[in-house]
Amino acid sequence: MNIESAKYNVDLEGNNSEIKATIDGTEMYVPIDPDNRHYQAILEWVAEGNTIAEAD
Amino acid sequence: MTTKLRAASFQDGAVTTTKIAADAITNAKIADDAITNAKIADDAVQTENVASTVNLGRRNIIINGAMQVDQRNSGSSYAQINSAYSLDRFRGNSYDGGAATGKFTVIQSSTAPDDFSHSLLVTSSAATSDAANNIFNIEQLIEGFNTAHLNYGSSSAQTITLSFYVRSSLTGTFGGALKNSARDRNYPFTYTINSANTFERKTITISGDTTGTWIGSTNGIGLWVSFGLGVGSNYVGSAGAWAAGDKFSASGATSVVGTSGATWYITGVQLEVGEQATPFEHRSFGEELQLCKRYCNALLGGTNANRLYTYNYNPSYKAYLFYFPVKMRAAPSVTLSTSGGAGTAAIVTKDSMFRYIAAGVTATTAYYLYDFTFDAEL
């Protein structure tokens, strides 16, 4: 997967609930779930030295 | 002097079951065609007499093996990118050391063998040269909950049989491989396409892997089934035996992507316990769709097809709730479109539901969501 961007998204309480990411040219909301394949790919992307941007 | 007993010598009912020694009547003593249907009493054959030797229903471990379900593309052509899904439950790799694009397309085809309505068609977009790191394939990753009964990684690992209908513009030896989630145990296989542009059914019987680490009954990858379309030397192995390593196909297999315009069709993919390939198990379309929705639920078609309206959660927010028709394998990733303003979304997805709360949208704004894809694929 080609991860172009990743940024945390918060719930109403202000907690990081999802990651808004652009993967293979598609914008999507990725849950913070270790069983989710996109989240697994984002973790690999982070391990390569990339950073998930904080929410606004 | 020997006296022969004739059938007429026996009174009716004289030869009872208890007078026939165990194993006295062997197959060799029964003439061909001697036992006709008329001689088998009603209800003589009970389920317990056949269950251990005949595969009954619900035997196909593969989902969407008849290629009927195509939620994402609805029959449109898809340019394969690496590790991405086309027809439901089938994904492809397009990798040459990095993500490769423009190598082949995938489409749900109505060209199919007798008894089938669809196939998955791969068309090579260019003549891609062989390279050691190439991985071009179509594969299905089967969830552990659906493969735990194979007992892989133990002495009771079950023999399984893979069968499928395949057709290609090319002939020769083709390959694929099975492997585990850790990608350190693999079983490459080969099959031969004898006639160009003709569907042929292939069967491959695979002894169970008694070693290695297999995940068992979980929602992870239980078994990986790959059909090679052009796999480099780093990812192929010798066919016909389990071995260590990460392989996607067998040595010496024909490369489909090596020939521009080459075609490769597949359908009727079945993986079942046992040494025999039984006829393909046709499940109803509704059943197959429901099975697919555990991994992908796509509600597409534009603004009017699957529009989700809302209620005002409070004066500042609009809330949208959607419960999935089947519990998904994991919390899904979500793609969607919105109409009626930008808003700011606070989204929560679980394996059973999706909640979207939009802020910054006025109460009177007709803000709605549409074109959803919920993805919990492996």
Count of helical stretches of chain B: 2
Integer-rounded radius of gyration of chain B: 27 Å
Given as residue ranges, the uncertain stretches of chain B (5+ residues, pLDDT < 50) are none
What is the alpha-carbon Rg of chain A in Å? 11 Å
Count the beta strands of chain B.
22
What share of the residues of chain A lie within helices?
Answer: 10-25%
Measured distance between first and last alpha carbons of chain B: 78 Å
What is the 3D form of chain A? globular
Strand content of chain A: 35-45%
Tell me, what's the shape of chain B? globular
Distance between the termini of chain A: 25 Å
Largest sheet of chain B: 7 strands, antiparallel
The total strand number of chain A stands at 3
Helix-strand string of chain B = HEEEEEEEEEEEEEEEHEEEEEEE
SS content category of chain A: alpha+beta
User: Biggest interface pair, residues each?
Assistant: A-B, 21 and 26 residues
Report what the structure shows.
The complex is a heterodimer of chains A (56) and B (378). Chain A has 56 residues and is an alpha+beta fold. Chain A has one helix at residues 37-47, and strands at 3-10, 16-23, 26-31. Chain A has a three-stranded antiparallel beta sheet, covered by helices on one side. Chain B contains two helices and 22 strands. Chain B has a seven-stranded antiparallel beta sheet, with no helix packed on it. A six-stranded antiparallel beta sheet of chain B has the order 1-4-5-15-7-10, with no helix packed on it. In chain B, 40% of the residues are buried.
